[in-house]
Amino acid sequence: TDNVFKSFEFRKRQKSKNHDDVGDYDVLFIDVDKKLVWNIECKFIHKVANISEVANQQKGFFEQGTYHTKFQRRINYLENHMSDLFDCLNLNYSNDYKIKNYMVTNKLFEAQNLNIEFDIITYHELEQLIKNPDMIVQ
Fold it and tell me: Pairing mode, if any, of strands 36-43 and 98-105?
């Protein structure tokens, strides 16, 4: 489809504006019919064998890796620059658009003891949402 953008960077796509360097958006999908922007962050989670490895994985992912804070920074930037996004993609923007932010992993993974403002879902769950977009809670 024409409205799927991989590795999207504001700074590279819209050089005429002085955008912050928030890194790239793994996948952005603009659903014009439903007025919905899918912001997808993709992460691979390694297999763990025991509870100790689960704890180490959580610590590495959320404390040392700061993947969630980087994604949240991109979410905030996108929310504040939606009109710029549509402008550089030559799409018509209106304030009716909603953003759904998903961190998509290859297996079930939860942010234990951490308050985050986006959903962490599996690839399988993403497939289900794509097939049944009415399941999306606004």
Answer: parallel
